[in-house]
Amino acid sequence: MAENSKLTNKRVVSGMRPTGKLHLGNYVGALANWVKLQETHECFFFIADWHALTTDYADPSKIGVNTVDVALDWLAAGLDPERCTMFVQSHVPQHAELHLLFSMITPLGWLERVPTYKEQQQNLATKDLSTYGFLGYPVLQSADILIYKAGFVPVGEDQVAHVELTREIARRFNHLYPGKRGAILPEPQPLLTPTPKLPGTDGRKMSKSYDNYILLSDPEPVIRQKLKTMVTDPARVRRTDPGNPDLCPVGDLHKIFSDKQTLEKVYAGCRSAGIGCIECKGWAADNLIKTIAPMQERRRKYEENPKLALQIIEAGDAKARASAESTMKEVREAMGLSQNLELPQRATGKTGE
Questions:
Q1: What whole-number distance in Å separates Cα of residue 335 and Cα of residue 118?
Q2: Fewest beta carbons less than 10 Å away: which of 231, 290, 301, 304?
């Protein structure tokens, strides 16, 4: 391989679609883990604007603004351009080139068996997802990962199948096109991300589609108001009824954001009906606000100087393009697509030489 093998094994690649300002679910489910990984691995994190088109191709009007908002929230959460590479997927055209080449060798059956294919078609029934792009988005995802020769991909358990498909594509490519110095594409390993249960204000999984979310950038009064409406343990019909924090969405928030002392007060007070739900929600809001206040302060810095954020992304784009092009040179050569064409040797017609 052209790149140092130790570096490759420590390399992490992951992306996030530009859905606009990020909420607590995005932070707990992925972003907080990325911030830790940048301290121990060489990380490439990209804003997946092409992936956004696989489901929202009919209305791409918000992709640009949403991309900037995601970048601001990444920087606010603690991603550091000195410790990781942040870039925009469509700014690295080599992703599309590798996706095209992978699409030539990926069997149709591999894509049709991806668990999320039919699941998302059912969940997004109002959209026409009978497109080549939607069926093939796991191939683009594989290109996103393999073009950086990633050693690890941080995912939740529901995404392990996508990493396995990426491994299969790498295996098939290496079998069909062995490189001069051995296999070109390493098979990445899934890096399972611990995902604490984070409910939205209605008790379901926090999601913008459910309108039950709390944004990382929500001001304090908005956060407190949203938490006031949050559902609690259904057993607590009256103030005097005891409850169980393990069955309460607000209790789940405390487990993630509150300290040990607060948790002890929550368990003792809820189970004995010594505290009411309003008081408990107030404590949750206090600890949540304490956690995200530094993020909001960092976000304001970039909002006041947006050029700084754009410069960080532009620098990340350039670094990602250089790395991606290094891989593509090997891929093109192995597939007989070298840009340096050689003319066929002609017979001289002379004999006896």
A1: 33
A2: 304
Instruction: Tell me: do 77 and 190 sit in the same domain.
Output: yes
Residue 4 main-chain phi, psi, to 5 deg: -55, 125
Q: Which pairing describes strands 152-155 and 84-88: parallel, antiparallel, or unpaired? A: unpaired
Nearest of 43, 13, 86, 27 to residue 308 by alpha carbon: 86
227 occurs within a structural domain: yes
Tell me the C-alpha distance between 321 and 10, whole Å. 19
| Assigned token pair, 331 | 């891929």
Residue 5 is which amino acid?
S
| Structural domain contains residue 352 | no
Query: 79 lies in which domain range?
Result: 5-198+307-334
Q: Mean pLDDT in runs of 10 for the chain (353 residues)?
A: 48 97 96 96 98 93 97 98 98 98 96 80 78 93 98 91 96 94 94 88 93 97 97 93 95 96 96 96 97 97 95 98 97 88 66 51
- At 114 the three-state DSSP class reads coil
Residues 159 and 194 in one domain: yes
pLDDT of amino acid 59? 93
C-alpha 234/C-alpha 243 separation (Å) is 8
Q: How far apart are CA 64 and CA 215, in angstroms?
A: 19
Half-sphere exposure of 29 (CA within 13 A, CB side): 19
Q: Residue 343 falls within a domain, yes or no?
A: no
Strand order in the sheet with 11-16: 84-88, 42-47, 11-16, 152-155, 189-192
Clarify whether residues 82 and 146 are in a common domain: yes
Please check whether residues 88 and 14 belong to one and the same domain.
yes
How many residues are given for the chain? 353
Which letter does DSSP use for residue 245 in this model?
Answer: G
Position 234 in a domain: yes
In the prediction, which pLDDT does 4 show?
A: 42
Provide the whole-model pTM.
0.91
> How big is the CA angle at 194 (ends 189 and 69), to the nearest 5 degrees?
90
What does each C-alpha distance from 85 to 10, 70, 262, 266 come to in angstroms?
14, 14, 37, 40
Is residue 259 located within the same domain as residue 319? no
DSSP string, 27-61: IIIIIHHHHHHTTTSEEEEEE-HHHHHHHHTT--T
